[in-house]
Amino acid sequence: MTRQTQPERHALTISHPVWRAGRRFFCFSAAAIVMLLPMAAQSADYQLGTMDKLRIRVVEWRTAEGAVRDWSSISGDYTVGPAGNISLPFIGEMPASGKTTTEISTAIGEELQQKFGLLDKPDASVELAEFRPVFLSGDVETPGQYPFAPNLTVLKALSLAGGLHRADSGQRIERDFINARGNYDVLVSQRNGLLARRARLISEAEDKDIEFPKELQDSADGKKLITDETNFKLARAKKLRDQLQSNEDLRNLLQSEIASLEKKIVTQNRQMELYRKELDSIGNLADRGLVVNSRVLSLEQSVSDLQGKVLDMETASLRAKQDISKATQDAADLQSDRDTEIAQDRQSTEADIEGLSLKIGMYKDLIAEALSHDPAAGRSSSAGEAPPVSYSIVRDNDGKASEIPVDENTPVQPGDVIKVGILPIPAN
Question: Which residues fall in a compositionally biased region of kind Basic and acidic residues (predicted)?
Fold first, then answer.
């Protein structure tokens, strides 16, 4: 009996000998499933900090059992606490602040292996489920904390807080213009991401190269989206190929086993026929006492043993054929599920694009309305002049907070505090 050294929810045990022979293919597929779908915006060298939320999944391949065990008691969502740690069952407090998800993944596997004395190190998949928020203070409509999103700039963050706060009603038009422009930029960025995603889905559905819209090819952000979606398509295609190849290798192994069993059955039947002929030839002699009965009994026992072996081999051959049928169906299901997923994602993406296009049109109208009442409201944007607003970011670097002046196009990082101040409007 194998001693169990940690909690488990279930174990997938491969009992068939051919499955054991192909376990290396199964291990690869299991690892691919665990590593599935990291956040598109997550960077490999992103350093974690307080309030970052992680999604952790732990599985273990047990060589001795030929089984994958899911550590469900550890898998789940965790938040980096004020001390910069995450608290995990069995492990306790683990430092996370300043580390990458890859480092956390390695540390979890090593801690569990050491604690329970495991032969195989568990595999931990750690992905960034939610960035730590950003904070806005000063002359904004609604100060407070807001969720961070990739490609967030000072202007986009300002729009999340409702834009600038102006006590002077005479500056309402300019405020409305800034709010509308900020929301417009955020929606355009979101739509560009959906356009890139739609192009990738169309490519996957029709099995052809990705044709990205020209509007994405002409901007830096668009080129990054193109790169991300292209890499994502390649990763998904590789995963499907590996799964189908693993399935094909399994079927080949089963076919080889069936062929071997059929040859053995033919040999056993030939041997059994020889025993029967010999038994028939000495049967009459035994009745007349010319041959000892022990010889007859020995031949009958040999025939009976051969019949049992043939029956076992025929049963094993039938089981292998059933496994081939199941593996063939699994391969068809993989492709069918992939096609269904692509179709559903494409339908959802089309609906999201349509909704964003309507909102973008609304903010275009609001910008045009603000400019029709006060053409000077957009002067900073059209003439390249700095708006009468000061921006600064308070950022934590190595445990020390520092304040740096920025402009509205400066990228924001998770955990930043954005300070906004309205400068006096110079007299004409």
Answer: 335-348
Say if pTM beats, i.e. exceeds, 0.85. Answer: no
pLDDT digit string, tens, across residues 116-168? 888 888 999 999 889 999 999 988 889 999 999 889 999 999 999 988 775 44
Tokens 């700095």, residue located: 386
Distance CA 163, CA 93 (A): 40
Residue-wise pLDDT tens digits, 7-52: 333 333 333 333 333 443 333 333 333 333 334 334 457 889 889 9
Q: Are 377 and 371 in contact (CB under 8 A)?
A: yes
CA distance 202 to 155: 33
User: Which residue stretches of the chain have pLDDT < 50?
Assistant: 1-43, 167-170, 380-386, 425-428
Q: Is the dihedral of CA 250, 255, 258, 264 positive or negative?
A: negative
Residue 363, token pair as written in the block: 């903010």
CB of 369 closer than 8 Å to CB of 378: no
Q: Work out the number of other CB atoms within 10 angstroms of the CB of residue 376.
A: 12
Query: How would you write the chain as a 3-class SS string?
Result: CCCCCCCCCCEEECCCHHHHHCHHHHHHHHHHHHCCCCCCCCCCCCCCCCCCEEEEEEEEEECCCCEEEECCCCCEEEECCCCCEEEECCCEEEECCCCCHHHHHHHHHHHHHHHHCCCCCCEEEEEEEECCCEEEEECECCCEEECCCCCCEHHHHHHHCCCECCCCHHHHHHHHHHHHHHHHHHHHHHHHHHHHHHHHHHHHHHCCCCCCCHHHHCCHHHHHHHHHHHHHHHHHHHHHHHHHHHHHHHHHHHHHHHHHHHHHHHHHHHHHHHHHHHHHHHHHHHHCCCCCHHHHHHHHHHHHHHHHHHHHHHHHHHHHHHHHHHHHHHHHHHHHHHHHHHHHHHHHHHHHHHHHHHHHHHHHHHHHHHHHHCHHHHHHHHCCCCCCEEEEEEEEECCEEEEEEECCCCECCCCCEEEEEECCCCCC
What confidence score (pLDDT) does residue 283 get? 63
318 vs 312: CA distance, rounded Å: 10
Single-letter amino acid code for the residue at 134: V
